[in-house]
Design goal:
Helix content: 10-25%
CATH class of the largest domain: Alpha Beta
Radius of gyration: 20 Å
CATH topology of the largest domain: QueA-like
CATH superfamily of the largest domain: QueA-like
Number of strands: 18
Oligomer: single chain
CATH architecture of the largest domain: 3-Layer(aba) Sandwich
Shape: globular
Strand order of the largest sheet: 2-1-18-17-15-3-13-14-16
Largest sheet: 9 strands, mixed
Strand content: 25-35%
Number of helices: 6
Structural class: alpha+beta
Order of helices and strands: EEEEEEEEEEHEEHEEHEHEEHHE
Length: 344
């Protein structure tokens, strides 16, 4: 397939700039994979579509305030660093913004925290490796800002609205946004119905910000993202299957984690998994772990659009783009702070 096959028109007015209150008052499009039917509900109605033997699996990663604004120590030129992946106590892979942010450049920050970052390696595109003068994580609340996606241009008044309510494991450059819809009230309803929950971790990294640039999607290279599935959650999934329940992935990052673990288990019962994943799911992929998906609406030409097309099965791309056209007609809100789909 070609990249242009996954393009669609989306006027700026459909892109959600602010989150809704409460979180679970967003819209929910419920799609049946078998019949291709769809229903328009509110996210808080999700409980109506779940059964007591079902298992919801969430990504509990926590977004770092990883957008650092600084200037070159020598010239005062503006520099922006987006922390992507920690290599050791003081060394990070970053996305660098600014002119000639090259090895040897030292970046300082206009705060009371006296910390510097030296660029020590130039990677592909805007990626760099920097070494801080001391570990930076203890100072991120003073130094950093929440790294909102570039299509969100309005300021976020409440920084916690770009975190899920169950975020726990710090390490992401972006939120697993399908989980932003869940509330304590909705969790109570799910508990009352006997819906189980499990948690994995995938630290969202470069591919959230890296568009597909090749027309032949088979030539696209996925950057590695670290993820982990514990044996206890693997056991939860195996037991859910034995009882006839569904494994429901909340978000595409959870999908990648579970399917990566499924591939590593080589068709046997699911086992614990920890490591980097470069799994690139495109139409024709055979899902082995995930039975249903909760997801937001994704950018044109994105790897996530390809992943969900694959989940819809035969003619999945055409079916998904038809659902997207309906979403526009019904005034759904798109992307990170937008509405959601439940595909089952």
């Amino acid at each position: 397939m070609q990249l242009s096959d996954f393009d669609y028109d989306l006027p700026q007015s459909y892109i959600a700039q602010t989150p809704v209150y409460p979180r679970d008052s967003s819209k929910l499009m419920v799609i049946s994979r078998d019949t291709n039917s769809r229903a328009h509900r509110q996210f808080s109605d999700l409980v109506d579509y779940l059964n007591p033997n079902d298992l919801l699996v969430f990504n509990n990663t926590k977004v770092l305030p990883a957008r650092l604004l600084g200037k070159k120590k020598a010239t005062g030129g503006k520099v922006e660093l987006l922390l992507l992946k920690q290599q050791d106590a003081t060394t990070w892979e970053v996305l660098a913004g600014g002119r000639r942010v090259l090895p040897g450049v030292t970046v300082v920050f206009d705060t009371e925290v006296e910390i510097e970052a030296e660029v020590i390696a130039q990677l592909s595109g805007p990626r760099r490796v920097v070494r801080f003068s001391e570990p930076v994580q203890p100072y991120l609340k003073q130094l950093g800002q929440m790294p909102l996606p570039p299509y969100i241009t309005e300021a976020l008044s409440d920084q916690d609205r770009y975190q899920t309510i169950y975020a726990e494991e710090e390490g992401s450059a972006a939120a697993p946004t399908a989980g932003l819809h869940f509330t304590d009230a909705l969790f109570s309803k799910l508990d009352q119905k006997g819906i189980s929950r499990g948690f994995v971790t995938l630290n969202v990294g470069l591919d959230t910000f890296a568009p597909v640039t090749v027309e032949n999607i088979a030539e696209h290279t996925m950057h590695a993202e670290w993820c982990t599935l514990s044996q206890s959650v693997a056991d939860q999934i195996n037991l859910t299957r034995e009882r006839g329940g569904r494994v429901i992935a909340v978000g595409t990052t959870t999908v990648r984690t579970l399917e990566s673990a499924g591939q590593a288990s080589q068709g046997q019962q699911l086992q614990a998994f920890a490591g980097d994943t470069r799994l690139f799911i495109t139409p024709g992929y055979a899902y082995s772990v995930v039975d249903a998906v909760i997801t937001n609406f994704h950018l044109p030409k994105s790897t996530l659009l390809m992943m969900i097309s694959a989940f819809l099965g035969e003619n999945g791309r055409e079916r998904l783009l038809d659902h997207y056209a309906t979403a526009k007609a019904e005034n759904y809100r798109f992307f990170s702070f937008g509405d959601a789909m439940f595909i089952c």
